[in-house]
């Protein structure tokens, strides 16, 4: 298993866009938070976190939904990442039709779109701080179809359901988990 430092270097090599790099850090923090709360051992928490970090590895170079996730998964497999990481990266894109079968698969999917949506909500708060985002703010913004229109609302709800939570509980946990990297990503 390549180290986290190697994973960060890979993310930076494939993505010059600071927003994509920050998104990887946010999803990593969320997946790590869930893995820790699940009581997993530190090696598994690290491995799962790396799946979150690298889930959009290929997005800047290959944003086409027909290939996004597949190209990244192939590269991760070539580089010796564990099968569970490779599968989670491939399974996070519904367009590929890869079934999500593990807790890690479901977490990467559930944390991906909500992380981006929470950032957008935070930036609309007077403080512009993630810590000031509450579930009611998320629900209010979800009703506004013009707000963060690229984020499919049904995916936010489906992600929470896949990990056995309502959206409000998922959002609360995510805000807490993302708080670990909020200063690093400017929130």
Describe this protein's structure.
This protein is an all-alpha fold and 187 residues long. The chain has one domain (4-178): Hypothetical protein af1432. The chain contains nine helices and no strands. The protein has helices at residues 4-14, 18-37, 42-54, 70-78, 83-91, 103-124, 135-143, 153-162, 167-178. α3 (42-54) runs parallel beside α5. The chain is globular. The relative contact order is 0.14. The model has no long low-confidence stretch (mean pLDDT 96).
A few lines on this structure:
By secondary structure, the chain is an all-alpha fold. The chain has nine helices and no strands.
Secondary-structure topology with pairs:
Elements: H1 4-14, H2 18-37, H3 42-54, H4 70-78, H5 83-91, H6 103-124, H7 135-143, H8 153-162, H9 167-178
Task: Provide tags for this entry.
0% strand; Hypothetical protein af1432; single chain; mainly alpha; 187 residues
Rg (C-alpha, Å): 15 Å
- Give the integer mean of the pLDDT values: 96
Regions with pLDDT < 50 over 5+ consecutive residues? none
Given helix and strand content, the structural type is mainly alpha
The ordered string of helix (H) and strand (E) elements is: HHHHHHHHH
